[in-house]
Write a sequence for this structure.
């Protein structure tokens, strides 16, 4: 993104929401203990603001992409808690009012049959060393630093009704009953023809919505963009033959959209 002007122009024209892929993860933003590097993350936020885009922050709390000084350090529970609180408060407060949604806790449950919480040696250092109650703390700290931001759990393989989705549902339901500020549930939704589609997806999201949670992707009127139409044209022509898209009277909406930009 920093070196590709054509990509940036296309991004600004076609999208209204932006998420840092890596620049807000621990190994990038706090590469050395207590030394924060916000340059790359700031550049993405500035780009989003210049083009009227919403921002999603990813991620404050994860088992992966942590710096070596953290994973290999010899810290007491008290020291680890202070490190985590300082990180959450420092990062969220810096972008208060700029980042509208945060993936506060990312991928905290494993993929085993029971959807065990990641508290093993190869799991989440914070849960392993500080216990599950730290999940309350990170949401509270983030909320105190930016009361307007929406705070999410986020994970993969939680699209349909399954053990991992159940674990999140039970956790969030319990936290909400105790007034912990959890506002949303993000399903990463790595959809592919290769994996098939879980037909309980809608039912699963609806039960989280019934808890009063936001669902990822509630941004705007969902108007078709030229990118959508270009993909549609490629698929139709590949399936039915070159020129089939232009001759199909049922596809006039996308035909008109592409005609305006070509």
């Amino acid at each position: 993104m920093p070196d590709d002007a054509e990509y940036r122009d296309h991004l600004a024209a076609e999208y209204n929401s932006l998420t840092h892929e890596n620049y807000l993860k621990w190994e990038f933003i706090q590469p050395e203990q207590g030394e924060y590097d916000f340059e790359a993350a700031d550049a993405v936020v500035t780009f989003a603001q210049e083009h009227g885009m919403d921002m999603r922050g990813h991620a404050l709390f994860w088992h992966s992409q942590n710096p070596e000084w953290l994973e290999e350090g010899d810290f007491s529970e008290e020291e680890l808690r202070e490190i985590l609180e300082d990180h959450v408060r420092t990062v969220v407060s810096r972008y208060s009012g700029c980042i509208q949604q945060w993936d506060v806790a990312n991928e905290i449950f494993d993929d085993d049959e029971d959807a065990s919480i990641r508290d093993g040696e190869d799991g989440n250092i914070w849960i392993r060393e500080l216990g599950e109650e730290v999940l309350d703390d990170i949401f509270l700290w983030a909320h105190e630093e930016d009361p307007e931001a929406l705070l999410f759990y986020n994970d993969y393989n939680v699209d349909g009704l399954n053990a991992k989705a159940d674990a999140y549902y039970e956790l969030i339901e319990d936290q909400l009953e105790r007034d912990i500020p959890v506002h949303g549930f993000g399903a990463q939704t790595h959809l592919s023809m290769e994996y098939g589609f879980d037909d309980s997806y809608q039912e699963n999201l609806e039960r989280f919505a019934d808890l009063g949670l936001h669902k990822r992707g509630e941004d705007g009127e969902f108007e078709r963009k030229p990118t959508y139409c270009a993909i549609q044209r490629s698929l139709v022509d590949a399936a039915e033959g070159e020129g089939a898209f232009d001759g199909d009277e049922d596809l006039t909406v996308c035909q008109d959209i592409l005609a305006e930009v070509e």
Remarks:
- The first strand starts at residue 17 and ends at 19.
- The beta strands are 17-19, 54-61, 101-106, 150-155, 184-187, 214-215.
